[in-house]
Amino acid sequence: MGSFNIAVIPGDGIGPEVTNGTCEVLQVIAQKYGHSFHFEELLAGGSAIDATGETLPASTLAACKKSDAVLLGAVGGPKWDSLPGKQRPEQALLGLRAGLGLYANLRPAVLHKELSQACPLKDKYVADGIDIMIVRELTGGIYFGERGRRDGGKSPDGQDMGQEAYDTESYSVLEIERIARVGFELAMGRKKKVFCIDKANILETSRLWREVVGRVSLEYPEVEVEYMYVDNASMQLVRRPSDFDVMITSNIFGDILSDEAGMITGSIGMLPSASLGAPGKPGMYEPVHGSAPDIAGLNKANPLATILSAAMMLRWTLGLRKEADAIENAVSKVLSEGYRTIDIAYSEECTVLGTREMTQKVILSIV
Ligand code: IPM
Ligand code: MG
Fold first, then answer.
1. By alpha-carbon position, which residue is closest to atom 11 of ligand 1?
2. What is the mean pLDDT of the chain?
3. Position in ligand 1 atom list of the atom nearest CA 258
4. The pLDDT of residue 221
5. 81 alpha carbon, closest ligand
6. Which of 124, 233, 242, 313 has the highest local Cβ count within 10 Å?
7. Separation in Å, CA 7 to CA 25, 36, 48, 349
8. Whose CA is nearest to atom 5 of ligand 1?
9. What is the pTM of this model?
10. Which atom of ligand 1 is least distant from the CA of 105?
11. pLDDT for 14-69, tens place per residue?
């Protein structure tokens, strides 16, 4: 019987709809399994800019640090798109990731068998299913390196180059080691295979990744490691997705590959994620889909990615495995009964539900 403090950041767009429903799901889990969840709602992103002038108020970060886990909807929207880089809602995400030390981002891309029709690849490429775990480094690399503008100087033939912009990729041994360990630990509970995705034919950071991943792999003799260049990996993902399992990669490559992996599973509306830091520190859980401002407030959003993110939260941060299974089983049951939100309604036999109704179906299916 546990008592947990969960920081909830609804954020912008469809964020509030999907987090509200997910908190209801969690309450039902609490009742059924005798836990108590205390939710504290916090501001970040565009709604925080509107209310306080800041994208990530210090009080939000402080409350997240004190919580057991953070559940986030989504941030951003057209209203704030013209703000300068540092003031944009997306900065709230980077601030939370850095502030909470969330260096490991787990993005599972699973093709639910009930949704196989949603997969845009031909059947023959996905006959063996898709079950990939992207392990993206989240607090280093080009996202956090030095960036700026400067005078571009002169070209070799004396032309004035004008202004130039730069972003810097750098990785330390410690940063690579700790993300590699997360990948290898996960692999031990899966198929014992790790793909290290990099661009070691060009980038020095990637060459260091290979060295460090190679060293860490010696601690896991049972796990097979395959090194793959990111351009090749992006191609193989659509050619033979079933061959992939755990993929360890840098911040920017993970950002790109996780969208690709998400797409081939059919609906980005189904994809949860976990961002984890040091053991014992609060993890942050959020759907991969973003704020979808075009359907915000219309009861059309798919709540399942957030509900599945809550299941990851129960499993990875709160240590409540059977409760996590209960949520995941409820989602599978609802899908197998043919209920769909509009984004995953590919066949005529299915019953299309709104956000609230889908959430209620999941709640009723929790046993
Ligand atoms: C993601 C998003 C973010 C990222 C943006 C919104 C800053 O694309 O979580 O993948 O690039 O990390
Ligand atoms: Mg992204």
1. 255
2. 96
3. 10
4. 98
5. 1
6. 313
7. 15, 14, 15, 39
8. 90
9. 0.94
10. 9
11. 999 999 999 999 999 999 999 999 999 999 999 999 999 999 999 999 999 999 99
Nearest ligand, CA of residue 12?
Answer: 1
**Which residues have beta carbons under 5 A from ligand 2 (an ion)?**
255
Backbone angles phi, psi at 214, to 5 degrees: -60, -45
Q: Which residues surround ligand 1 with Cβ inside 6 Å?
A: 90, 93, 255
Q: CB within 8 A of 204, min separation 6: which ones?
A: none
- The topology under which CATH files domain 120-264 is Isopropylmalate Dehydrogenase (3.40.718)
Residue pair 365/333 in contact by the 8 Å Cβ criterion: yes
CATH code matching the domain that covers 1-103+281-367, chosen among 3.50.50.60, 3.30.420.310, 3.40.140.10, 3.40.718.10: 3.40.718.10
Phi, psi of 269 (to 5 degrees): -70, -5
Which ligand lies nearest the alpha carbon of 95?
1
Of ligand 1's listed atoms, the one at least distance from the Cα of 251 is: 12
How many angstroms separate the CA atoms of 278 and 292, rounded? 31
227 CA distance to ligand 1 middle (Å): 25
pLDDT (tens digit, 9 = 90+) per residue, 206-256? Answer: 999 999 999 999 999 999 999 999 999 999 999 999 999 999 999 999 999
- Catalytic residue IDs: 143, 199, 231, 255, 259
| Cβ within 8 Å of residue 65, ≥6 positions away | 99, 100, 282
The residue whose CA has the least distance to atom 12 of ligand 1 is 255
Residue 287 exposed, middle or buried by CB count within 10 Å (0-12, 13-18, 19+): buried
Query: How does strand 147-151 pair with strand 163-167?
Result: antiparallel
- Compute the distance from residue 213 Cα to the ligand 1 centre, in Å: 25
* Digit-coded pLDDT (tens) for 324-352: 999 999 999 999 999 999 999 988 889 99
Buried b (16+ CB within 10 A) or exposed e, 258-285: bebbbbbbbbbbbbbbbbbbeeeebbbb
What percent of the chain stands above pLDDT 90?
Answer: 93
Tell me whether the CATH fold assigned to 1-103+281-367 matches the one assigned to 120-264. yes
Expressed in angstroms and rounded, the spacing between residue 322 Cα and the centre of ligand 1 is: 30
Tell me how far the alpha carbon of residue 235 lies from the centroid of ligand 1, in angstroms.
Answer: 21
